[in-house]
Amino acid sequence: xxxxxxxxxxxxxxxxxxxxxxxxxxxxxxxxxxxxxxxxxxxxxxxxxxxxxxxxxxxxxxxxxxx
Length: 67
Prior knowledge:
The chain has helices at 12-20, 22-25, 37-64; strands spanning 31-32, 35-36. By secondary structure, the chain is mainly α. It has one domain (6-64). It has a two-stranded antiparallel ribbon. A hairpin with a 2-residue loop joins strand 1 (31-32) and strand 2 (35-36). The longest helix is centred in the last third of the chain and has 28 residues, at 37-64. It comes from Streptomyces cavernicola.
C-alpha cells in the first residue's frame, strides 16, 4: 500500500513530533520565545500537524488524478 501511496507517510510526522521525540524534548531549558522548550515544541508540533494532513490530502488527490 505504501508503495502506491507514499504520501501517506506524511501522517507519521505528527506521531513522531508528539510521541517519538518526547524523550528528547522533555526539558525546560532553553527558553524559546519566552516559552519553556517543551511547550515551544508542542506548539510547533500543533502547527505542523495540519500541514502534514494537507500534504497527505494533496498527494492523495494527485494520486487519484483529481488535480
